[in-house]
Amino acid sequence: MMSVRRIVAFMSAMLALPFPAYAEAKQEKPQYVIISFDGAHDLRQWRRSADLGRETGASFTYFQSCVFLLSPDTRNEYARIPGEKARSNVGFALSKQEVADRLAAIWSAHQAGHEIASHGCGHFDGTKWTKATWDKEFSEFSRILTHAYEINGIEGEPNGWKEMARSVIGFRAPYLAMSPALNAAQRQAGLQYDASTVSRGPLEPHVKKDIMQFSLPLIPEGPSKRLVIGMDYNLYVRHSGGKERPEEAAIYEARAYEAFKTTFDTQYSGERIPLQFGFHFTLMNDGAYWRALEHFAREVCRQKEVRCVSYRTYLEETAAPDESHAG
Predict the structure, then answer these.
(1) What does the DSSP 8-state code read for residue 227?
(2) What secondary structure letter does DSSP report for 85?
(3) Strands 193-199, 211-221: parallel, antiparallel or unpaired by DSSP?
């Protein structure tokens, strides 16, 4: 029979053995929330988004349009064909000072941990674009962003600006409009991810021909829970036919917030597939969708096991993609 002393020694040794299942609580998969802004134009919205990031600890992705880095005096920088007039579906900056202020906002966002990504330049529909057209657009975006201070004759370019501009890794197509040639052009441009597709509900990011694919999800919205793309513009069209109805703004704000939060709650208590929501710097329906965004971010981004991050940070923090989706 084992003596009491030997029993005590045996039990002590057993307790000293590592048992991971009991030594520490199981770590839950984080719920990622990726919030992005297309175009990144209005300076007031740059400041407002920066304030929201500081308040909630979130980092955002800004899909910048390069035409907003050109003033009336430099807009023809985007017209690379001799004699061609500069064209853009979204205009250009209104002054050199506006460009300077926007460059300062971009640099401040970069320093705060947000991501600067590409929305191309002129906001054109690329559905029928050839690879050569995509190549030109990506080249112009990179050149104008990299040399924006020089092009506009603005002093005070920060140390590291060109490195930041040359390290852009992501793209979202204007109008979410793509052509079969886009993927090859993205690879040639050194891009690592595309955020231009739409999925029926949240979808895990996956690799397609060496480019990580992120999809804006269709989310249930409104009394009938009809699906709509998780983006402010699509809510604007759903709610008011793309026309301003400020008198209904409070209703639209509540519906948008409920759609965001319901989608989040489903994933947070379930599979925890990364959630993506897209916005613009335009205050549609009297800013209803921005207020819904702010309410949502304040509600969820500081919750336990929630990571509100940019696309770049998500890629840095996560493991290799599920190869079963590769194509």
Answers:
(1) E
(2) P
(3) parallel
Cα dihedral 241, 50, 114, 77 in deg (nearest 10): 70
pLDDT in tens, the chain (327 residues): 444 444 344 444 444 444 344 334 446 899 999 999 999 999 999 999 999 999 999 999 999 999 999 999 999 999 765 567 788 999 999 999 999 999 999 999 999 999 999 999 999 999 999 999 999 999 999 999 999 999 999 999 999 999 999 999 999 999 999 999 999 999 999 999 999 999 999 999 999 999 999 999 999 999 999 999 999 999 999 999 999 999 999 999 999 999 999 999 999 999 999 999 999 999 999 999 999 999 999 999 999 999 999 999 999 999 654 444 444
What are the tokens at 8? 């005590």
Per DSSP (E only), the strands in 66-192 are 115-118, 170-171
Helix (H/G/I), strand (E/B), else coil: 121: coil
39, two tokens: 């175009």
What value, to the nearest 5°, has the Cα angle with vertex 120 and ends 118 and 124? 145
CA pair distance 182, 190, nearest whole angstrom: 12
Cα gap 250→252, rounded to integer Å: 5
Distance, first Cα to last Cα, the chain: 66
- Angle at alpha carbon of residue 196, lines to 123 and 129, rounded to 5°: 55
Alpha-carbon distance 105 to 107, whole Å?
A: 5
For residue 272, what are its two tokens? 């925890």
What dihedral angle (degrees, nearest 10) is formed by the CA atoms of 206, 207, 212, 216?
-40
pTM confidence score: 0.88
Beta strands at 211-221 and 206-208: parallel, antiparallel or unpaired: antiparallel
Give the helix/strand (H/E) hosting 308.
Answer: strand 306-308
Look at the block and give the residue holding tokens 């802004």.
37
List b or e across 259-285, with b for residues whose CB sees 16 or more CB atoms inside 10 angstroms: bbbebbebbbeeebbbbbbbbbbbbbb
With tokens 């590409």, the residue in question is: 118
